[in-house]
Specification:
Strand order of the largest sheet: 3-4-5-1-7-10-9-8
Number of strands: 10
Order of helices and strands: EEHEEEHEEHEEEH
Strand content: 25-35%
Number of helices: 4
Distance between the termini: 17 Å
Oligomer: single chain
Largest sheet: 8 strands, antiparallel
């Protein structure tokens, strides 16, 4: 299993920040935040009065932060970097906003952290083969349509998700787990796109174990 690229990593941190010293002066805070992380795109003065403020193309630990979106009930960070870097950025952001802006997490809000990790990987084998019972369905399809098509059909992906109705109403629905062939590559090259509600290292470890399962499928 080779990691070809980190397509995108997203960290969603649900919380509420409050300022005991009084309402935050947003124009001043936006300038300080942009300077702190070298954001090239900052909200206009009109946008600062809206529920969401998004800062784009910033820098942290010599890596680009694609965007930082700040909501009334949380923060979303996107970057084509390992989720460890996003965790470090979040910790730095919270510590800085406390020291510089006087913002602290509200004691009435229960913090909640979610990861969305998207990777491009190259496997030694055909990963969808791990779904062994489904292969019989593929065989059935090929036999049924052999006189209509002149190419062989194969599994290209699988998708695992959870039922939102089984999740507590105060919790966010986790991201699905997806493995699908990367468009633009021959099947034989076994290049896949994968997304998971996991930190980057856990996601890659899961794919390695999936590859091991596929070897015996």
């Amino acid at each position: 299993m080779n990691l070809a690229a980190i397509e995108n990593s997203r960290l969603i941190f649900l919380t509420q920040l409050t300022r005991p010293g009084g309402q935050l002066y947003l124009p001043d805070a936006a300038v300080k935040l942009a300077n702190r992380y070298s954001f090239a795109r900052v909200p206009s003065l009109d946008k600062l009065s809206e529920p969401t403020q998004t800062f784009g193309m910033g820098k942290f630990m010599n890596a680009q932060i694609e965007d930082l979106s700040i909501y009334n009930d949380g923060i979303i960070i996107n970057s084509r970097s390992d989720t460890d870097l996003l965790d470090a950025f979040l910790s730095d952001l919270l510590a800085w906003s406390d020291a510089e802006l006087g913002l602290v997490q509200s004691i009435i809000a229960k913090p909640e952290k979610h990861y969305e990790s998207s990777l491009i990987i190259k496997s030694e084998i055909d990963l969808p083969a791990v779904i062994k019972p489904a292969l019989a369905v593929v065989d059935l399809f090929n036999k049924t349509w052999k006189n209509k098509f002149h190419v062989k059909y194969r599994l290209t992906s699988f998708h695992l998700d959870c039922d939102k109705f089984e999740i507590s109403s105060d919790r966010r629905k986790p991201y699905p787990f997806i493995v699908e062939r990367r468009v633009g590559f021959p099947f034989e090259e076994n290049v896949f796109y994968s997304a998971a509600p996991l930190p980057t290292k856990d996601h890659l470890d899961l794919l390695v174990r999936l590859e091991e399962l596929a070897r015996v499928a």
